[in-house]
Specification:
By secondary structure, the chain is mainly alpha-helical. 71% of the residues lie in helices and 0% in strands. Among the domains are: 17-46; 47-82. It has helices spanning 6-43, 49-81. The termini are far apart.
Length: 100
C-alpha cells in the first residue's frame, strides 16, 4: 500500500540535502586540515626524499672509503713495526774513530 504523504516527502528531501551539505562540509574540513598540516610540516624544515637518498648514498660511499683507508693505515703501521727481512732491528752503533 503506497500513500502520498507530503510530510514524508519533505523529510526525505531534507535528509537528502543534509547529506549533500555534510558531504560538502566534509570536503572543506579535509582541505582545511590538509592545508594546516602541510603548513606545519613546511615550518619543520624537513628534507625531501630525493635529498635524503642523495645524502644516504654519499654517507655509504664515505663509509666505504673510510674502511679502505683504515685497511691501508693498518697495513702501513704493520709494515713499520715489523723489521724488514735481512736487516737488523736496532740501528748500528757508530764507531768512535775517524773515518777514512
Amino acid at each position: 500500500m503506497q500513500t502520498d504523504n507530503k510530510l514524508i516527502d519533505d523529510f526525505s528531501r531534507l535528509a537528502s540535502s543534509a547529506v549533500g551539505a555534510l558531504h560538502g562540509l566534509r570536503g572543506e574540513i579535509e582541505a582545511a586540515v590538509r592545508a594546516r598540516i602541510e603548513r606545519k610540516l613546511g615550518d619543520l624544515d624537513l628534507v625531501s626524499r630525493d635529498e635524503f637518498e642523495t645524502v644516504k648514498a654519499m654517507a655509504a660511499k664515505a663509509r666505504e672509503e673510510n674502511e679502505i683507508l683504515q685497511e691501508r693505515i693498518a697495513a702501513l703501521e704493520a709494515k713499520m713495526t715489523r723489521p724488514a727481512s735481512g736487516k737488523r732491528s736496532a740501528p748500528a752503533k757508530k764507531r768512535a774513530g775517524p773515518r777514512k
